[in-house]
Q: What sequence folds into this?
């Protein structure tokens, strides 16, 4: 009788050193915690997107900024896919008594307000704000309004000034982006309200 | 070479987590740059970090022998990606730290020794052998 021959294959596996894994993971988490606490202590948050919040209000007593540009656009709001808005770009600015709030209808006539307020001056670099209503006492220097020949209607009109000053402002905002913001004395509150802001 | 064998020869889970982390980290600044193209924006830094993490995941898949050093760089960049990319809403950072740690902890398969006097080129895979059935 002949011998039966069978084919057997084995695979060498790489292995994981659990002790090394946990050491590396713990080190990573410690460094991450250190970075986050440093950002928290310095009151700095980088590249904060608030898009998608939609139709919220920004109120403040005083704003002073440099490098202001305004142009019209169509943008998204919480109720419409495309609504007329204006984009405000300011390079550097300081705001006193800033309040940001958004009202939510939770059921029937019950409303809640999420509010972010800063008791100390807020410093922002690289601000973009898309707003549909701006109520304020305004002051500009080197203000220029210009038309430009372009097939894109958003580029046909621009308003620019070297400085901007706004007092007692209430702005209906749809999009807000800051490259860098320092909010010392920040307070976030969620409270019941009787009726929403208009 | 089978898929199973290919997976065993590299830090597969670590590299895969790193690739997902890179994609998540990249997604945040890419969205921001479309919506808010501001000059000198930190989103550009976010895109750099996200792209680098994605690249490290791909390199670790192709060159498993460098997995330890690639793991260290992955952890470092994942943590820094909090600046400019929000660390893929922190999920990207956590996946990056986990993926990087797995890459550091991964050891390649030990070379198989058939005979003491026989030098077999290491492939991580033992060639089929004929065994006498009992």
A:
């Amino acid at each position: 009788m002949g011998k039966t021959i069978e084919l057997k294959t084995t695979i060498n596996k790489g292995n994981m050193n659990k002790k090394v894994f946990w050491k590396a993971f713990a080190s990573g988490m410690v460094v991450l915690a250190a970075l986050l606490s440093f950002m928290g202590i310095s009151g700095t948050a980088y590249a904060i997107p608030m898009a998608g919040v939609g139709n919220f209000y920004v109120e403040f007593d005083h704003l002073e900024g440099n490098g202001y540009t305004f142009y019209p656009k169509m943008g998204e709001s919480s109720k419409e896919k495309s609504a007329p808005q204006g984009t405000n770009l300011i390079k550097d600015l300081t705001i006193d008594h800033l309040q940001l709030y958004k009202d939510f209808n939770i059921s029937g006539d019950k409303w809640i307000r999420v509010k972010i307020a800063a008791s100390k001056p807020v410093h922002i670099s690289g601000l973009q704000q898309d707003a549909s209503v701006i109520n304020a006492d305004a002051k500009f220097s080197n203000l220029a309004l210009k038309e430009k020949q372009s097939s894109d209607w958003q580029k046909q009109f621009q308003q620019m000034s070297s400085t901007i000053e706004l007092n007692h402002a209430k702005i209906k905002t749809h999009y807000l982006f800051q490259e860098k913001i320092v909010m010392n004395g920040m307070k976030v509150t969620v409270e019941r309200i009787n009726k929403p802001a208009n | 070479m089978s898929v199973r064998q290919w997976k065993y020869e590299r830090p597969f889970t670590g590299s895969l987590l790193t690739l997902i982390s890179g994609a998540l980290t990249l997604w945040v600044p890419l969205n921001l740059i479309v919506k808010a193209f501001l000059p000198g924006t930190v989103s550009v830094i976010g895109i750099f970090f996200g792209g680098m993490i994605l690249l490290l995941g791909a390199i670790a898949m192709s060159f498993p022998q460098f997995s330890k050093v690639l793991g260290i760089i992955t952890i470092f960049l994942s943590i820094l990606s909090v600046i400019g990319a929000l660390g893929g809403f922190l999920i990207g950072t956590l996946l990056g730290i986990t993926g990087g740690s797995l890459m550091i902890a991964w050891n390649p398969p030990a070379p198989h020794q058939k005979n003491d006097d026989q030098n077999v080129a290491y492939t991580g895979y033992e060639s089929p052998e004929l065994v006498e059935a009992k």
Observations:
- The first helix of chain B runs from residue 3 to 8.
- Chain B touches chain A through 55 residues (CB under 8 Å).
- Chain B has one domain: 3-105.
- Residues 68 and 104 of chain B are 4 Å apart (CA to CA).
